[in-house]
Amino acid sequence: MDGEMLTYGDQLVAALERVVALGEQLPGQRFRLSGDDLARVLPLLDRCRAVMEGDTYAIAAEAELRGEVAASQAGSTANWVSQHCPSLDRRQAAAVAKAVKRLAPPRFALVHQAVMDGQVSPAVGVTVRAEFDAMERLLRPGSDDAVLAGLVAMGIADGSAGVRGLRPAMLARYGLAEELQDEQDRHDGCTTLTRGRDIGGGLHEYRLRLGPEQRAVVEAAIGALSAPRPCTGHPDRGDHTRGPEYRDPRTLEQRRGDALVEVCRRATAATPATTAAGTKVTVFVTIRWDDLRDGTGPGTVFAGLDDGTLLGPQTVRKMACDAGIIPVVLGSRGEILDLGHTVRLFTPGQVKALWLRDRHCTFDGCTIPATWCHAHHIRHWADAGPTDLANAALLCARHHTIVHRDRLTAQVTPDGVRWDTVPGSYDRAPCRSPNEPPERPIDGPASDTPTDGSDPPHRP
Q1: Kind and range of the H or E element at 301?
Q2: 283 closest CA partner among 297, 300, 269
Protein backbone atom coordinates (compact mmCIF):
# COMPACT_ATOMS: atom_id res chain seq x y z
CA MET A 1 0.00 0.00 0.00
CA ASP A 2 2.95 2.35 -0.68
CA GLY A 3 1.79 5.80 -1.62
CA GLU A 4 -1.75 5.13 -0.45
CA MET A 5 -3.38 6.89 2.48
CA LEU A 6 -3.67 4.37 5.31
CA THR A 7 -6.93 4.30 7.23
CA TYR A 8 -7.07 4.16 11.00
CA GLY A 9 -8.05 0.51 10.67
CA ASP A 10 -4.96 -0.20 8.55
CA GLN A 11 -2.71 1.52 11.08
CA LEU A 12 -4.30 -0.27 14.01
CA VAL A 13 -4.03 -3.71 12.40
CA ALA A 14 -0.36 -3.10 11.54
CA ALA A 15 0.43 -1.95 15.08
CA LEU A 16 -1.37 -4.89 16.67
CA GLU A 17 0.43 -7.32 14.37
CA ARG A 18 3.76 -5.89 15.59
CA VAL A 19 2.64 -6.24 19.23
CA VAL A 20 1.58 -9.84 18.61
CA ALA A 21 4.91 -10.60 16.93
CA LEU A 22 6.82 -9.18 19.91
CA GLY A 23 4.67 -11.15 22.29
CA GLU A 24 5.27 -14.38 20.39
CA GLN A 25 9.03 -13.79 20.49
CA LEU A 26 9.11 -13.00 24.23
CA PRO A 27 9.24 -16.59 25.62
CA GLY A 28 12.32 -17.37 23.55
CA GLN A 29 14.01 -14.06 24.34
CA ARG A 30 13.21 -13.79 28.03
CA PHE A 31 16.82 -14.61 29.03
CA ARG A 32 17.86 -11.27 27.53
CA LEU A 33 15.87 -9.40 30.15
CA SER A 34 17.56 -8.24 33.35
CA GLY A 35 15.96 -8.59 36.74
CA ASP A 36 14.84 -4.97 36.56
CA ASP A 37 13.43 -5.61 33.08
CA LEU A 38 11.29 -8.48 34.37
CA ALA A 39 9.81 -6.21 37.04
CA ARG A 40 9.12 -3.49 34.42
CA VAL A 41 7.72 -5.73 31.70
CA LEU A 42 5.25 -7.77 33.76
CA PRO A 43 3.03 -4.83 34.85
CA LEU A 44 2.91 -3.64 31.24
CA LEU A 45 1.87 -7.10 30.07
CA ASP A 46 -0.83 -7.12 32.73
CA ARG A 47 -2.08 -3.74 31.57
CA CYS A 48 -2.01 -4.93 27.95
CA ARG A 49 -4.14 -7.91 28.92
CA ALA A 50 -6.71 -5.71 30.66
CA VAL A 51 -6.73 -3.17 27.81
CA MET A 52 -7.12 -5.90 25.20
CA GLU A 53 -10.00 -7.43 27.15
CA GLY A 54 -11.69 -4.03 27.24
CA ASP A 55 -10.98 -3.52 23.53
CA THR A 56 -12.52 -6.91 22.73
CA TYR A 57 -15.69 -5.83 24.53
CA ALA A 58 -15.65 -2.42 22.78
CA ILE A 59 -15.36 -3.99 19.32
CA ALA A 60 -18.13 -6.50 20.07
CA ALA A 61 -20.39 -3.71 21.37
CA GLU A 62 -19.73 -1.60 18.28
CA ALA A 63 -20.45 -4.56 15.98
CA GLU A 64 -23.72 -5.15 17.83
CA LEU A 65 -24.66 -1.47 17.62
CA ARG A 66 -23.94 -1.19 13.89
CA GLY A 67 -25.84 -4.36 13.01
CA GLU A 68 -22.72 -6.23 11.90
CA VAL A 69 -23.64 -9.16 14.13
CA ALA A 70 -27.21 -9.29 12.84
CA ALA A 71 -26.00 -9.17 9.22
CA SER A 72 -23.52 -12.02 9.78
CA GLN A 73 -24.24 -15.72 9.76
CA ALA A 74 -23.11 -16.12 13.36
CA GLY A 75 -26.67 -16.14 14.68
CA SER A 76 -25.77 -14.53 18.01
CA THR A 77 -23.30 -12.10 19.55
CA ALA A 78 -21.67 -14.93 21.49
CA ASN A 79 -21.09 -16.93 18.30
CA TRP A 80 -19.79 -13.82 16.50
CA VAL A 81 -17.26 -13.24 19.30
CA SER A 82 -16.26 -16.93 19.28
CA GLN A 83 -15.66 -16.90 15.53
CA HIS A 84 -13.40 -13.86 15.71
CA CYS A 85 -11.70 -14.67 19.05
CA PRO A 86 -10.71 -18.35 18.82
CA SER A 87 -8.64 -18.10 22.02
CA LEU A 88 -11.83 -17.52 24.05
CA ASP A 89 -13.79 -20.56 25.16
CA ARG A 90 -17.57 -20.50 24.85
CA ARG A 91 -18.03 -19.36 28.44
CA GLN A 92 -15.71 -16.37 27.97
CA ALA A 93 -17.29 -15.43 24.64
CA ALA A 94 -20.74 -15.66 26.23
CA ALA A 95 -19.59 -13.34 29.06
CA VAL A 96 -18.52 -10.71 26.52
CA ALA A 97 -21.81 -11.04 24.63
CA LYS A 98 -23.84 -10.85 27.84
CA ALA A 99 -22.00 -7.71 28.92
CA VAL A 100 -22.70 -6.12 25.52
CA LYS A 101 -26.44 -6.73 25.97
CA ARG A 102 -26.72 -5.92 29.68
CA LEU A 103 -24.64 -2.74 29.67
CA ALA A 104 -26.12 -1.19 26.51
CA PRO A 105 -28.80 0.97 28.24
CA PRO A 106 -27.54 4.57 28.72
CA ARG A 107 -28.11 4.46 32.49
CA PHE A 108 -25.25 1.92 32.72
CA ALA A 109 -22.81 4.12 30.78
CA LEU A 110 -20.46 4.26 33.80
CA VAL A 111 -20.18 0.48 33.91
CA HIS A 112 -19.93 0.25 30.11
CA GLN A 113 -17.01 2.70 30.13
CA ALA A 114 -15.23 0.86 32.95
CA VAL A 115 -15.33 -2.37 30.93
CA MET A 116 -14.12 -0.64 27.76
CA ASP A 117 -11.26 0.97 29.69
CA GLY A 118 -10.17 -2.42 31.01
CA GLN A 119 -10.82 -1.42 34.62
CA VAL A 120 -13.17 -4.37 35.11
CA SER A 121 -13.75 -7.49 33.03
CA PRO A 122 -16.97 -8.09 31.09
CA ALA A 123 -17.93 -10.73 33.67
CA VAL A 124 -17.54 -8.21 36.50
CA GLY A 125 -19.59 -5.70 34.52
CA VAL A 126 -22.41 -8.23 34.27
CA THR A 127 -22.20 -8.84 38.04
CA VAL A 128 -22.48 -5.09 38.69
CA ARG A 129 -25.64 -4.95 36.58
CA ALA A 130 -27.11 -8.02 38.33
CA GLU A 131 -26.45 -6.62 41.80
CA PHE A 132 -27.92 -3.26 40.87
CA ASP A 133 -31.04 -4.94 39.49
CA ALA A 134 -31.44 -6.88 42.74
CA MET A 135 -31.28 -3.68 44.79
CA GLU A 136 -32.99 -1.18 42.51
CA ARG A 137 -36.49 -1.20 43.98
CA LEU A 138 -35.05 -0.92 47.51
CA LEU A 139 -32.99 2.21 46.74
CA ARG A 140 -33.86 5.80 47.55
CA PRO A 141 -34.68 7.98 44.52
CA GLY A 142 -31.63 9.70 43.06
CA SER A 143 -29.09 7.21 44.47
CA ASP A 144 -28.61 5.08 41.32
CA ASP A 145 -25.40 6.76 40.15
CA ALA A 146 -23.78 6.59 43.58
CA VAL A 147 -24.65 2.90 43.93
CA LEU A 148 -23.33 2.07 40.45
CA ALA A 149 -20.13 3.99 41.14
CA GLY A 150 -19.65 2.10 44.40
CA LEU A 151 -20.22 -1.25 42.73
CA VAL A 152 -17.75 -0.43 39.95
CA ALA A 153 -15.13 0.71 42.47
CA MET A 154 -15.54 -2.54 44.37
CA GLY A 155 -15.31 -4.49 41.10
CA ILE A 156 -11.99 -2.80 40.33
CA ALA A 157 -10.66 -3.68 43.78
CA ASP A 158 -12.07 -7.16 44.42
CA GLY A 159 -13.81 -8.44 41.29
CA SER A 160 -17.20 -10.13 41.20
CA ALA A 161 -16.95 -11.53 44.72
CA GLY A 162 -16.42 -8.04 46.14
CA VAL A 163 -19.35 -6.67 44.14
CA ARG A 164 -21.68 -9.36 45.48
CA GLY A 165 -20.57 -8.68 49.03
CA LEU A 166 -21.27 -4.95 48.81
CA ARG A 167 -25.07 -5.20 48.71
CA PRO A 168 -25.65 -4.96 52.50
CA ALA A 169 -23.51 -1.82 52.80
CA MET A 170 -25.20 -0.19 49.82
CA LEU A 171 -28.68 -0.93 51.13
CA ALA A 172 -27.73 0.27 54.60
CA ARG A 173 -26.57 3.60 53.11
CA TYR A 174 -28.94 4.15 50.19
CA GLY A 175 -31.85 1.78 50.88
CA LEU A 176 -35.45 2.49 51.78
CA ALA A 177 -36.08 0.95 55.19
CA GLU A 178 -39.79 0.42 54.50
CA GLU A 179 -39.06 -1.41 51.23
CA LEU A 180 -36.54 -3.66 52.93
CA GLN A 181 -39.05 -4.40 55.69
CA ASP A 182 -41.79 -5.16 53.14
CA GLU A 183 -39.47 -7.57 51.36
CA GLN A 184 -38.66 -9.37 54.59
CA ASP A 185 -42.34 -9.48 55.54
CA ARG A 186 -42.98 -11.28 52.26
CA HIS A 187 -40.49 -13.92 53.37
CA ASP A 188 -42.79 -14.91 56.24
CA GLY A 189 -44.29 -18.27 55.41
CA CYS A 190 -41.63 -18.98 52.77
CA THR A 191 -39.38 -21.07 55.01
CA THR A 192 -39.38 -24.64 53.72
CA LEU A 193 -37.63 -27.91 54.50
CA THR A 194 -38.15 -30.94 52.30
CA ARG A 195 -38.91 -34.36 53.80
CA GLY A 196 -35.61 -35.70 52.51
CA ARG A 197 -34.77 -37.59 49.34
CA ASP A 198 -33.19 -41.04 49.49
CA ILE A 199 -29.94 -40.79 47.52
CA GLY A 200 -28.81 -44.35 48.24
CA GLY A 201 -26.41 -45.92 50.68
CA GLY A 202 -28.61 -44.98 53.61
CA LEU A 203 -28.18 -41.26 52.92
CA HIS A 204 -30.92 -38.66 52.57
CA GLU A 205 -30.71 -35.18 51.07
CA TYR A 206 -32.76 -32.24 52.39
CA ARG A 207 -33.31 -28.81 50.90
CA LEU A 208 -33.79 -25.81 53.19
CA ARG A 209 -34.99 -22.33 52.17
CA LEU A 210 -34.74 -19.40 54.59
CA GLY A 211 -35.37 -15.67 54.66
CA PRO A 212 -32.85 -13.24 56.21
CA GLU A 213 -34.38 -13.42 59.71
CA GLN A 214 -34.54 -17.22 59.70
CA ARG A 215 -31.03 -17.49 58.28
CA ALA A 216 -29.67 -15.26 61.05
CA VAL A 217 -31.19 -17.56 63.69
CA VAL A 218 -29.89 -20.76 62.03
CA GLU A 219 -26.39 -19.35 61.51
CA ALA A 220 -26.25 -18.21 65.14
CA ALA A 221 -27.32 -21.68 66.28
CA ILE A 222 -24.79 -23.66 64.26
CA GLY A 223 -21.95 -21.13 64.05
CA ALA A 224 -19.88 -22.16 67.05
CA LEU A 225 -20.70 -25.86 66.66
CA SER A 226 -19.42 -25.90 63.06
CA ALA A 227 -15.91 -24.74 63.95
CA PRO A 228 -13.08 -27.20 63.08
CA ARG A 229 -12.21 -29.60 65.88
CA PRO A 230 -8.69 -31.08 65.97
CA CYS A 231 -8.75 -34.87 66.31
CA THR A 232 -6.21 -37.21 67.86
CA GLY A 233 -4.90 -40.53 66.62
CA HIS A 234 -4.70 -41.34 62.92
CA PRO A 235 -7.71 -39.99 60.97
CA ASP A 236 -7.17 -42.31 58.01
CA ARG A 237 -7.58 -45.35 60.28
CA GLY A 238 -10.50 -43.88 62.19
CA ASP A 239 -8.46 -43.86 65.42
CA HIS A 240 -9.36 -40.67 67.26
CA THR A 241 -8.57 -41.83 70.79
CA ARG A 242 -4.82 -41.33 71.14
CA GLY A 243 -1.74 -39.92 69.51
CA PRO A 244 -0.91 -36.48 68.12
CA GLU A 245 -3.51 -33.96 67.01
CA TYR A 246 -4.57 -33.72 63.37
CA ARG A 247 -6.58 -31.11 61.53
CA ASP A 248 -10.31 -31.72 61.42
CA PRO A 249 -10.75 -33.86 58.25
CA ARG A 250 -14.36 -32.74 57.73
CA THR A 251 -15.26 -30.26 55.00
CA LEU A 252 -17.11 -27.05 55.85
CA GLU A 253 -20.34 -28.61 54.56
CA GLN A 254 -19.82 -31.68 56.76
CA ARG A 255 -19.12 -29.57 59.83
CA ARG A 256 -22.24 -27.46 59.24
CA GLY A 257 -24.34 -30.58 58.73
CA ASP A 258 -23.01 -32.11 61.95
CA ALA A 259 -23.70 -28.82 63.77
CA LEU A 260 -27.32 -28.74 62.59
CA VAL A 261 -27.88 -32.32 63.77
CA GLU A 262 -26.28 -31.47 67.12
CA VAL A 263 -28.60 -28.48 67.57
CA CYS A 264 -31.60 -30.74 66.91
CA ARG A 265 -30.24 -33.40 69.25
CA ARG A 266 -29.85 -30.88 72.07
CA ALA A 267 -33.33 -29.48 71.46
CA THR A 268 -34.98 -32.90 71.64
CA ALA A 269 -33.00 -33.78 74.75
CA ALA A 270 -34.13 -30.62 76.58
CA THR A 271 -36.98 -30.71 79.06
CA PRO A 272 -40.17 -28.77 78.20
CA ALA A 273 -39.33 -26.13 80.78
CA THR A 274 -35.85 -25.62 79.39
CA THR A 275 -37.16 -25.52 75.83
CA ALA A 276 -39.72 -22.84 76.64
CA ALA A 277 -37.81 -20.82 79.20
CA GLY A 278 -34.19 -21.52 78.35
CA THR A 279 -31.83 -19.26 76.51
CA LYS A 280 -32.30 -19.22 72.77
CA VAL A 281 -29.53 -18.86 70.20
CA THR A 282 -27.85 -15.46 70.13
CA VAL A 283 -27.98 -13.19 67.09
CA PHE A 284 -25.85 -10.03 67.14
CA VAL A 285 -27.35 -7.05 65.29
CA THR A 286 -26.10 -3.46 65.10
CA ILE A 287 -28.71 -0.74 64.64
CA ARG A 288 -28.70 3.01 65.17
CA TRP A 289 -30.84 4.25 68.07
CA ASP A 290 -32.97 6.53 65.93
CA ASP A 291 -33.54 3.72 63.39
CA LEU A 292 -34.62 1.34 66.17
CA ARG A 293 -36.84 3.99 67.74
CA ASP A 294 -38.46 5.27 64.54
CA GLY A 295 -38.27 2.15 62.37
CA THR A 296 -36.43 4.11 59.66
CA GLY A 297 -33.32 2.02 59.01
CA PRO A 298 -32.15 -1.59 58.97
CA GLY A 299 -30.05 -3.53 61.43
CA THR A 300 -26.96 -5.44 60.34
CA VAL A 301 -26.11 -8.95 61.52
CA PHE A 302 -22.47 -9.45 62.51
CA ALA A 303 -20.11 -11.99 64.08
CA GLY A 304 -21.21 -14.95 61.96
CA LEU A 305 -21.11 -16.43 58.47
CA ASP A 306 -24.16 -14.29 57.67
CA ASP A 307 -22.18 -11.17 58.61
CA GLY A 308 -23.59 -8.16 56.79
CA THR A 309 -27.12 -9.51 56.34
CA LEU A 310 -29.64 -6.67 56.65
CA LEU A 311 -32.76 -6.99 58.78
CA GLY A 312 -35.68 -4.59 58.54
CA PRO A 313 -36.31 -2.40 61.60
CA GLN A 314 -39.56 -4.14 62.54
CA THR A 315 -37.84 -7.51 62.10
CA VAL A 316 -35.20 -6.42 64.62
CA ARG A 317 -37.89 -5.35 67.10
CA LYS A 318 -39.71 -8.67 66.73
CA MET A 319 -36.52 -10.71 67.07
CA ALA A 320 -35.77 -8.84 70.29
CA CYS A 321 -38.74 -10.80 71.66
CA ASP A 322 -38.59 -14.27 70.08
CA ALA A 323 -34.88 -14.83 69.45
CA GLY A 324 -31.77 -14.37 71.53
CA ILE A 325 -30.92 -11.16 69.74
CA ILE A 326 -28.33 -8.87 71.26
CA PRO A 327 -29.12 -5.45 69.74
CA VAL A 328 -26.03 -3.25 69.77
CA VAL A 329 -27.71 0.18 69.72
CA LEU A 330 -25.51 2.87 68.15
CA GLY A 331 -25.62 6.65 68.49
CA SER A 332 -25.43 9.18 65.66
CA ARG A 333 -21.62 8.89 65.59
CA GLY A 334 -21.59 5.10 65.77
CA GLU A 335 -20.85 4.99 69.52
CA ILE A 336 -22.47 2.18 71.52
CA LEU A 337 -25.45 3.47 73.51
CA ASP A 338 -26.61 0.07 74.74
CA LEU A 339 -25.54 -3.56 74.52
CA GLY A 340 -28.70 -5.56 75.22
CA HIS A 341 -28.50 -8.37 77.75
CA THR A 342 -30.39 -9.94 80.67
CA VAL A 343 -31.93 -6.66 81.84
CA ARG A 344 -34.62 -7.18 79.19
CA LEU A 345 -35.25 -10.92 79.68
CA PHE A 346 -38.32 -12.54 81.21
CA THR A 347 -37.29 -14.95 83.94
CA PRO A 348 -38.33 -18.62 83.88
CA GLY A 349 -40.70 -17.87 86.76
CA GLN A 350 -42.38 -15.07 84.85
CA VAL A 351 -42.77 -17.30 81.79
CA LYS A 352 -44.42 -20.03 83.85
CA ALA A 353 -46.73 -17.42 85.39
CA LEU A 354 -47.69 -16.36 81.85
CA TRP A 355 -48.41 -20.00 80.98
CA LEU A 356 -50.80 -20.17 83.92
CA ARG A 357 -52.39 -16.78 83.24
CA ASP A 358 -52.77 -16.81 79.45
CA ARG A 359 -52.98 -20.60 78.79
CA HIS A 360 -52.46 -20.08 75.05
CA CYS A 361 -51.69 -17.41 72.44
CA THR A 362 -53.58 -14.30 73.51
CA PHE A 363 -54.44 -13.10 70.01
CA ASP A 364 -58.17 -13.24 69.33
CA GLY A 365 -59.33 -16.72 68.33
CA CYS A 366 -55.90 -18.41 68.56
CA THR A 367 -55.50 -21.52 70.72
CA ILE A 368 -51.81 -22.34 70.15
CA PRO A 369 -50.68 -23.80 73.51
CA ALA A 370 -48.73 -21.66 75.94
CA THR A 371 -45.54 -23.74 75.81
CA TRP A 372 -45.28 -23.06 72.06
CA CYS A 373 -45.61 -19.28 72.48
CA HIS A 374 -43.21 -16.37 72.91
CA ALA A 375 -43.29 -13.95 75.83
CA HIS A 376 -43.89 -10.55 74.23
CA HIS A 377 -43.35 -7.06 75.65
CA ILE A 378 -46.61 -5.17 74.98
CA ARG A 379 -44.68 -1.92 75.25
CA HIS A 380 -41.52 -2.94 73.38
CA TRP A 381 -38.25 -3.31 75.22
CA ALA A 382 -36.73 -0.94 72.61
CA ASP A 383 -39.23 1.69 73.80
CA ALA A 384 -38.31 1.19 77.48
CA GLY A 385 -41.14 -1.25 78.14
CA PRO A 386 -40.75 -2.92 81.57
CA THR A 387 -40.07 -6.63 81.88
CA ASP A 388 -42.99 -7.53 84.12
CA LEU A 389 -46.25 -9.48 83.84
CA ALA A 390 -48.36 -6.34 83.45
CA ASN A 391 -46.47 -5.63 80.22
CA ALA A 392 -46.35 -9.22 78.95
CA ALA A 393 -48.50 -11.43 76.76
CA LEU A 394 -48.05 -14.83 75.13
CA LEU A 395 -48.09 -14.88 71.32
CA CYS A 396 -47.57 -17.72 68.88
CA ALA A 397 -44.91 -17.20 66.20
CA ARG A 398 -47.45 -16.26 63.50
CA HIS A 399 -49.30 -13.69 65.60
CA HIS A 400 -46.06 -12.39 67.05
CA THR A 401 -45.02 -11.48 63.51
CA ILE A 402 -48.42 -9.89 62.81
CA VAL A 403 -48.32 -7.81 66.01
CA HIS A 404 -44.94 -6.33 65.05
CA ARG A 405 -45.80 -5.97 61.37
CA ASP A 406 -49.11 -4.17 62.01
CA ARG A 407 -47.77 -2.41 65.13
CA LEU A 408 -50.53 -3.53 67.49
CA THR A 409 -50.88 -2.94 71.20
CA ALA A 410 -52.85 -4.64 73.96
CA GLN A 411 -54.06 -4.19 77.52
CA VAL A 412 -53.74 -6.73 80.32
CA THR A 413 -57.08 -6.85 82.15
CA PRO A 414 -58.49 -9.11 84.91
CA ASP A 415 -60.36 -10.93 82.14
CA GLY A 416 -57.28 -11.50 80.01
CA VAL A 417 -55.23 -9.75 77.33
CA ARG A 418 -57.25 -7.56 74.96
CA TRP A 419 -55.62 -6.72 71.64
CA ASP A 420 -56.37 -3.57 69.68
CA THR A 421 -56.20 -5.01 66.15
CA VAL A 422 -56.47 -1.67 64.32
CA PRO A 423 -53.15 -1.28 62.43
CA GLY A 424 -50.95 1.33 64.11
CA SER A 425 -52.64 1.06 67.51
CA TYR A 426 -49.20 0.67 69.14
CA ASP A 427 -48.14 4.09 67.87
CA ARG A 428 -51.27 5.72 69.28
CA ALA A 429 -50.86 4.21 72.73
CA PRO A 430 -49.49 6.44 75.55
CA CYS A 431 -45.72 6.11 75.85
CA ARG A 432 -42.65 7.96 77.03
CA SER A 433 -40.88 10.63 75.00
CA PRO A 434 -39.71 9.17 71.69
CA ASN A 435 -36.48 11.16 71.89
CA GLU A 436 -35.39 9.63 75.18
CA PRO A 437 -32.66 6.99 74.67
CA PRO A 438 -32.85 3.70 76.54
CA GLU A 439 -31.65 3.79 80.12
CA ARG A 440 -29.67 0.57 80.16
CA PRO A 441 -26.28 -0.21 81.72
CA ILE A 442 -23.42 -0.27 79.23
CA ASP A 443 -21.17 -2.79 80.89
CA GLY A 444 -20.80 -5.46 78.21
CA PRO A 445 -22.90 -8.52 77.49
CA ALA A 446 -24.05 -10.39 80.55
CA SER A 447 -23.94 -14.14 80.62
CA ASP A 448 -27.23 -15.85 79.81
CA THR A 449 -26.51 -18.42 82.50
CA PRO A 450 -27.15 -17.18 86.08
CA THR A 451 -24.40 -17.75 88.59
CA ASP A 452 -26.75 -19.08 91.26
CA GLY A 453 -27.44 -22.31 89.41
CA SER A 454 -31.01 -21.38 88.47
CA ASP A 455 -32.50 -21.79 85.01
CA PRO A 456 -31.42 -19.20 82.40
CA PRO A 457 -33.91 -16.40 81.71
CA HIS A 458 -36.30 -16.33 78.77
CA ARG A 459 -35.77 -13.99 75.84
CA PRO A 460 -38.52 -11.36 75.62
Answers
A1: strand 299-302
A2: 300
